[in-house]
Design goal:
Elements: H1 3-7, H2 11-17, H3 21-24, H4 27-30, H5 40-50, E1 54-62, E2 68-75, E3 80-87, E4 106-112, H6 117-124, E5 139-147, H7 151-160, H8 167-173, E6 175-183, H9 207-232, H10 241-244, E7 248-253, H11 260-263, H12 265-283, H13 290-309, H14 315-337, H15 346-357, H16 360-370, H17 375-378, H18 401-411, H19 413-416, E8 428-432, E9 439-443, H20 458-476, H21 484-490, H22 495-506, H23 523-534, E10 537-541, E11 547-551, H24 578-586
Helix pairs in contact: 2-12, 5-9, 7-9, 8-24, 13-14, 14-16, 15-16, 18-20, 18-22
Length: about 575
């Protein structure tokens, strides 16, 4: 780390430059989030590389119909984790990304260690059933995936006759398989998180889930090459190295993911806080050295190419892509035609220009690009992105009612400004479906079930608590009963929101500062925010409630990681020709 960068870690300087929660925690801005150096996939690969993890495929038992199983082992300094993949010959008519599906092209589990023949036999009777089966605490993750209808068959047919697949189509779709669920943390019998949270690799958020997806990507390419060999015989070929990395792994995600960032406020705060600290650290840099400037300009070009590849048919995303493409072009022109990167405080000054001239899409993408050259300055913040949620769960009953009222006035003004009596401001309600035990969003005045509402209406609940506290204060006067404990003994239904208000006082980014039950709510913004922390790219909404994404596109494969850069893949390389880029616009 150079001297300039060391100076910027001064806490006081960084804190002054951190964006306030009133700006950051609005859904329209959170819904414009992009992956960063701190995203979980990138953090994982850097650790795997740093700790010299090795990868093997000890078992490949897949027949000519594409059915069977395989094992992929990640071997670290202390532990081994093995993905057990079950391949299925699925009737295309049964292929569905919906959570109600009962059959998939492939199913998987991440096994803690090296599975025995008995382990595989046991899991072969359960993993393909997913929710209908049961796994044990020897398993850490459970997942399933479907083939891409457009790309898998194209690649298979081309390889079978000895030809390479079309680059434009690969870049346009981005994956051969698309996961529709990756479960962990005790679901369906898997190991609870507390059993593994002291392990270095597993200590960060969603790292084992991201490892599962990384190994599933390797399986997807191996399987299509296997089936091409079966179909084409001696004529068949494998995917050329320069095309291989273009295949990521897809994911289809719906409403089930959205409530997570509401139900885990301290953890969510730590994600946002780490990201905002990273931005502030770079903005505090006095001067930009030549290497950092060159890297930034290179990443900016790659980001522009990425927008050419990224496409969607959904009107929400189409508009965002138009804005982002224009924003990156404006940014590129401004940097080229000014000396701003050579001036004092270049990144802070450039951010000020960006904030005035670009949309939220462009602003958030710029910040992601801005920190790319400064891994030595910001990557350590990934170690702060976990949370001990038990330690922050206890309510302080000794706090005075008056003090809690002040906290609500200071931190929940956005909630107090909303009239929740109006139907438009309480139009929706969150509940859990009986069939799949998945979060769902209902229309309060059009659908039954509001009696099963989940406590996710944080703004309304804070507003109701505020009124109840003020009434209590008036009724009790100046007495001992003005401690919160006495209030909660009489009004226990407010415990959950009291806890949130107390947490918000210590964790500034813990609360989404928007109405989560209003008629204008777009859950897709919540999904995109969370997925950006995973490292997702190419968001492609299919409605305002579910989205398809791409993971690990352009990343080195397990067999390449030892001899490749672990973290130079978040944006496509610049060696795509102008002709290919033009074709991508047509696909």
């Amino acid at each position: 780390m150079n001297t300039t960068n060391k100076q910027t870690t001064d806490k006081a300087s960084v804190c002054k430059l951190m964006r306030p929660p009133q700006q950051v925690m609005k859904l329209d801005r959170l819904g414009s989030s992009h992956q960063t150096r701190l995203s979980f996939m990138r953090t994982l690969l850097r650790r795997l590389k740093r700790e010299n993890w090795r990868f093997e495929r000890p078992i490949w038992s897949v027949d000519d119909n594409g059915e069977g199983h395989a094992v992929y082992s990640a071997i670290g300094p202390r532990r081994t984790y093995s993905l057990i993949a079950f391949a299925h010959d699925l009737d295309p008519a049964l292929r569905s990304d919906r959570v109600i599906a009962t059959a998939w092209d492939a199913t998987f589990c991440l096994f803690d260690g090296i599975p025995t023949t008995k382990d595989i036999e046991r899991l072969s009777k359960n993993v393909p059933l997913q929710e209908a089966g049961r796994i044990s605490d020897s398993e850490l993750c459970l997942s399933r995936a479907n083939r891409s209808g457009r790309l898998f068959g194209h690649v298979l047919d081309r390889l079978a006759v000895g030809e390479q697949p079309d680059l434009a189509l690969i870049q346009s779709v981005g994956y051969l398989y698309r996961t529709t669920a990756v479960y962990g943390s005790g679901k369906f019998g898997a190991a609870d998180r507390f059993l593994i949270e002291d392990r270095k690799l597993a200590s960060g958020p969603f790292r084992l889930e991201m490892l599962s997806v990384y190994l599933i990507r390797a399986f997807s390419v191996d399987l299509v090459e296997h089936m091409a060999k079966v179909k084409g015989g001696d004529k068949a070929t494998t995917i050329a190295p320069h095309l291989r990395r273009c295949f990521g792994i897809g994911n289809s995600t719906g409403l089930g993911m959205a409530p997570f960032i509401v139900n885990h406020p301290v953890l969510f705060n730590n994600w946002i806080s780490a990201r905002e600290q990273a931005y502030a650290r770079v903005r505090a840099i006095d001067t930009a050295d030549a290497k950092s400037k060159t890297q930034f300009l290179d990443f900016l070009k790659r980001a522009q190419l990425n927008v050419d590849i990224w496409h969607s048919n959904h009107e929400l995303q189409v508009g965002k892509l138009v804005d982002l493409k224009a924003d990156l072009a404006k940014l590129s022109e401004y940097v080229k035609n000014t000396s701003i990167l050579d001036d004092s405080k270049p990144w802070d000054n450039l951010y000020a220009w960006v904030a005035q001239n670009l949309t939220f899409e462009g602003q958030e993408h710029f910040l992601s690009l801005m920190i790319e050259p400064y891994g030595d300055l910001v990557d350590e913040l990934t170690e702060t992105m976990g949370a001990d949620e038990y330690a922050t769960f206890r309510i302080d009953g000794s706090q005075s009612v008056a003090d809690l009222i002040h906290l609500i006035e200071n931190n929940y003004a956005w909630a107090l400004d909303v009239d929740y009596v109006q139907e438009k401001n309480q139009a929706k309600f969150w509940y859990v479906s009986e069939e799949k035990l998945e979060p769902r969003l209902g229309e309060r005045f059009e659908e039954p079930g509001k009696e099963f509402e989940q406590p996710l209406s944080t703004g309304r609940d804070a507003s109701e608590l505020y009124v109840a506290l003020k009434n209590w204060l008036e009724e009790q006067g100046d007495s001992q009963a003005n401690e919160l404990a006495y209030f909660l003994l009489a009004h226990s239904k407010y415990r959950h929101i009291v806890r949130r208000v107390q947490q918000q006082a210590k964790y500034n980014y813990a609360e989404i500062q928007d109405n989560l039950i209003g008629s204008e709510l777009l859950p897709i913004n919540m999904l995109r925010c969370k997925l950006s922390f995973f490292g997702a790219t190419h968001f492609d909404p299919r409605s305002d409630r579910w989205v398809r994404i791409c993971l690990y596109q352009n990343a080195p494969f397990p067999s390449e990681l030892e001899h490749s850069a672990a973290d130079d893949w978040a944006y496509p390389p610049l060696n795509i020709t102008a002709d290919t880029s033009a074709k991508l616009q047509e696909v």
